[in-house]
Structure formats: structure tokens, C-alpha cells
Amino acid sequence: MDVERRHAEIQLPEGSWWDWQVIAWDCGQLRLAGGHDLTYHHGLELVFDDPVFVRCPSNFHDPTFRAPSPDEILQVTRQLGGELPVVVAFEADAGGQEPVSCLIAAERLKIVHETVLRYWREDAAPGQRFAPWVRSPGQ
Question: Which structural domain, as residue segments, surrounds residue 26?
């Protein structure tokens, strides 16, 4: 599902998305994985294409997504010299005494809702894929 609404609160699919982790981040993409327990699999990914502003921890819990405030949009606009199509804001538990405020700006956001296995299985079901770091025995 592509997110088309500019600077709006994103709507996640129905599910238990308590546990979150950055699973990929390079110059072209930031990928956040969410699930109820990231030990064996995750069921949701937020894929930010061409991220240019990222303020979030690598691991966090129980995020509350919201529309970015006018001040947050202004902060991104000033630092980048212009507005971006996607600005996502949320508060999350990062292990401290208070929630951390997170902000991500990118060209595009895609929400991927599918099972991604975090370990090798010979009998992976159709529609399941493996996380990028998973290798079959012998690889």
C-alpha cells in the first residue's frame, strides 16, 4: 500500500505491531520492521524511499503514529531547503523513562503487510519471504 496523503497520520493495517526495528538503511531506502515479537518473523514493513531526514532509534516499541506538527514540518523544510512528499511522526518507547519523539522525511512511503521470516526454513509457505540477512544452509 503506497501512502499518498502528505504529512498525515499513517494508518497501519490491523495487527499487533508492538516491536519495531530498523532492518535496512542505505542512501536509497529506510526499512522499519514491525511485529508482536521480532524473534522469528515480522509482518509489517514501512519502506521509506529516498529518506533524507531520519530521527528514530534502531529499536523501539509501541509507536503512536500521528500527523507531524507544523513545527516539525518547518524543521524539515528549513534543514532540507524545501518540502518533501512524506513526513511521518511518532512517539515510541525506546527503553528510557519517557517516549522518544521520532520524525522521518522521504520521497515515498510504502506499507508492506506480509510475513517475513528471520531464519531459514525449507518449508516456507507461499507468500512468505526471508529477511535480507537470512541465507540457506550452504550459502
Answer: 19-130
Which residues have C-beta within 8 Å of that of residue 22, sequence separation ≥ 6? 30, 31, 32, 33, 56, 58, 59
The answer to whether residue 47 sits within a structural domain is yes
- 14 domain-assigned: no
Q: Give the total number of structural domains in the chain.
A: 1
The whole-chain average pLDDT of the chain stands at 89
- Residue 46 belongs to some domain of the structure: yes
Examine the pLDDT at 1 and tell me if it is beyond 50: no
Between 124 and 4, where is the model more confident?
124
